[in-house]
Amino acid sequence: MNAEVKESLNYLGAFVDLWLDSEMNKLIASRFYVGFPRANYADLEPYMIAGILSKYGVPDEVTVDLFAVTSPIGLILRYESLNLYVQYNIAYDALFPILDDYTIRLCNNLDNIIEFQLQVSISPEDINLPIGFWDNPATRNDYEFNIEEASHLSLEEFAEVFSQPNQCFETLPVSVLSSLESTS
């Protein structure tokens, strides 16, 4: 397969990329990205965490991306059965230097979400598309931890709590997180 970004649209700070298989001339994936959704004129609530959880239910996987444990922290919802992947980069209040016993409080309100991207692929083999500068929410990195590892929440508890707006959870202490090995 020879995938290439065929179309990249930018409107009011929202980007849409469309990938085509140039050999078969068919759409194979799309990505919707918005930086600073609070400042966007569009109603993005349906794409925020509570909206996605309310519409699609419990994800197959939720991970917390703790790359260098600095703000923002990534929260990734993966619906493998739908080939739907959503990543939220969430700001949090931190004291620097971050202390070992410090926990990270992540909230799903619009004010805390710095950027998000939603990616849909036609088939599972399309998930590793090159997307340039942005992380690909369909693939894991070495700094991602399952929600069950990074917090005291099960996948079902996370979905139940975060399907309501303005909810928060705290990660385990940084010292515990840094000692874990990612399951990527």
Structure characterization notes:
This protein is α+β, with helices and mostly antiparallel strands and 184 residues long. The protein has one domain. Helices cover 14% and strands 35% of the residues. The strands form two sheets. Strands 1-2-3-8-6-5-4-9 form an eight-stranded antiparallel sheet. Strand 1 (3-11) and strand 2 form a beta hairpin. The longest helix is centred in the first third of the chain and has 8 residues, at 49-56. The chain is globular and about 50 Å long. The model has no long low-confidence stretch (mean pLDDT 79).
The class by helix and strand makeup works out as: alpha+beta
Provide the gyration radius in Å: 17 Å
Order of helices and strands: EEEHEEEEEEHHEH
Strand content: 25-35%
Q: What is the number of beta strands? A: 10
Number of domains: 1
Major sheet attributes: 8 strands, antiparallel
State the helical fraction: 10-25%
Low-confidence runs:
none
Distance between the termini: 25 Å
Shape: globular
Mean pLDDT rating: 79
Please count the helical segments: 4
As laid out across the biggest beta sheet, the strand order is 1-2-3-8-6-5-4-9
